[in-house]
Structure formats: structure tokens, C-alpha cells
Design brief:
It is built from 9 helices and 14 strands.
Length: about 290
């Protein structure tokens, strides 16, 4: 009895010994598997770090299922990693790899590369060149509109049927800087009674000419005007003149004679009020023509 008691207090129970041995074996196996999974993750991380950035596939396609499972079991390692930190004996952490912008990596070393001063200088030169081009275009456009040509729109029917309401015109403003308006020219001019308005009319006579209108027929220096461009239904039946056009002035009329406010009503126009010669009707396209 005392021997049994001594054996029960200090001896080895065969069942307990078997359980202990099995636990030790399971623990050692778990440790080996954990080491293997850790080594696999280290190898994959190193491969990703050494591979060219442009060709690197997504991380999830590289990690083996066992490594992915191990990654899911270690949230603290990933969550605590910040750009530039390392884990597992100095290799880049998984979060580090995910946070690196591939556009600023050197493909050979997978490290961030700063833009060189020469690249910034080249960028600034290109920007300045673009700005200079835009400024030059604006200056040229301003000069052309101011001294060369102008786009205008017809409002009204006083020049019908030659020009219709809302026709778009191109006016040559330079031509009368080097020359004189001629009878038959279609011109854009400032309205003498209100120079803030602009009219489009046809030159009928110039300085020194004598103009006379009898029952709607126009005579210049007693010669009937050849105005076949005026349809019969657009002619007027009024009388005007005779009058000699003074120096530096021009007599103008609309082609729609019975629906036009012109020199018959407000007198001849000074040359300085004549802006330019209508050269092109570009809209509507089907009616485009050169005058």
C-alpha cells in the first residue's frame, strides 16, 4: 500500500506519458510548418522586390495559398507596416510593396527615383514655348481684326436680294487704306447719324459726281446706272437731286431700293466712315460667294 502510494506520487503514468509525447510531437510539427510558411513568404517577398516593377503581377497571384492564409493570420504585421519600414530580417513588408508608386521606381532596383533638374528644365521650356505660341496667335489675330479683316453679320433686308438677313461676311479693312472706294463696291460703314451702328450699302457715286434719281431710276453724271442686280419689285419710284457729291464723300444706296435707309435720306458718307469692302459671304455655305 505504501509502495503503491509512493509510486502514485512520484512514478510515471503510462497514459500521461503517451499524451505528453503526442503533444510534443504536434507542437514540433506546428513549429516546422510555421517556419516553412514564413520562409515561403520571405522568398516570395524577395522575388517581388527584385522583379521589374512594370512586369510585377499582383501580389495575390504570386503568394501560394498557404502563404496567403498565413498573411491573413498576421494582421498586426501588415497593419503596422509603413512606407520605408522593414520586417522579417530587413525584407520589405507586404504593405510596403503595395504602397510604392510604380511610376517613380527604378525598374532595376525598385527604389524611388527623383526627377532630374534637366527634366524639370525641359518641362518648363515646353510650357513657356506653348504660352509664347498662344500669345503670338492672340497678337496676330488682334492685328488682323484691327487692320486687316473683320467678320460681320447682316441684320435686315436693305441689301436684298444680294445679301439676306443673317448672312455672314468677311470685310477687307485694308483695301481702302491703300486705295479708294469705287462705284459698285459693297461696303461696311458707320451710320453717319449714329456712328455706333454699322450699315452695309453699295457705292453709287464718288466725290465730284452728280447724282440724280427720277422715278426710281438712278443717273450718275446724266448716265443711267447699270443696276441689273435690283429686281423690278425692289425698285422705288422716288425723285432725288441732282446733287454734286462733295470732296471726300461717297453716295451709297441699298439694293432693296424701296426698303433702304441710305444717302437719299441722310446724305453722302465721308470716306473716314467707310470701314472696308465686303469680299466674301461665307454663310450660309450653299450661298457662299466672293464679291
Amino acid at each position: 500500500m505504501s509502495a503503491d502510494s509512493h509510486s502514485g506520487a512520484h512514478g510515471i503514468d503510462p497514459i500521461s506519458e503517451a499524451h505528453t509525447y503526442a503533444a510534443l510531437v504536434a507542437e514540433e510539427q506546428e513549429r516546422i510548418e510555421t517556419s516553412a510558411r514564413t520562409a515561403e513568404m520571405l522568398a516570395v517577398s524577395a522575388a517581388v522586390a527584385e522583379a521589374p516593377v512594370a512586369d510585377a503581377p499582383p501580389l495575390g497571384t504570386i503568394l501560394a495559398p498557404a502563404a496567403m492564409a498565413e498573411t491573413a493570420r498576421m494582421p498586426a504585421i501588415i497593419a503596422d507596416s509603413v512606407p520605408g519600414s522593414t520586417s522579417f530580417a530587413g525584407t520589405p513588408a507586404v504593405a510596403d510593396l503595395a504602397l510604392i508608386d510604380p511610376m517613380v521606381l527604378d525598374p532595376a532596383t525598385a527604389t524611388p527615383v527623383a526627377a532630374s533638374p534637366g527634366a524639370w528644365n525641359r518641362i518648363w521650356r515646353e510650357i513657356l514655348s506653348g504660352v509664347q505660341t498662344l500669345v503670338s496667335a492672340a497678337v496676330y489675330a488682334t492685328l488682323i481684326v484691327t487692320f486687316g479683316v473683320q467678320v460681320a453679320r447682316v441684320d435686315g433686308l436693305s441689301m436684298a436680294p444680294t445679301l439676306e438677313d443673317h448672312d455672314r461676311l468677311i470685310v477687307n479693312k485694308l483695301v481702302y487704306e491703300i486705295g479708294e472706294p469705287l462705284p459698285g463696291d459693297i461696303v461696311m460703314l458707320y451710320y453717319p447719324l449714329n456712328p455706333e451702328k454699322m450699315f452695309v450699302k453699295r457705292v453709287i457715286a464718288r466725290e465730284g459726281d452728280t447724282v440724280r434719281i427720277v422715278d426710281g431710276r438712278v443717273y450718275v453724271n446724266d448716265v443711267p446706272l447699270h443696276d441689273d442686280y435690283v429686281p423690278a419689285e425692289f425698285r422705288s419710284h422716288d425723285d432725288w437731286g441732282p446733287q454734286v457729291i462733295q470732296q471726300g464723300y461717297y453716295f451709297v444706296m441699298g439694293d432693296h431700293r424701296n426698303n433702304s435707309s441710305d444717302s437719299r435720306h441722310w446724305g453722302p458718307v465721308p470716306k473716314k466712315y467707310i470701314v472696308g469692302k465686303v469680299k466674301v459671304r461665307w454663310w450660309p455655305l450653299q450661298d457662299a460667294r466672293i464679291f
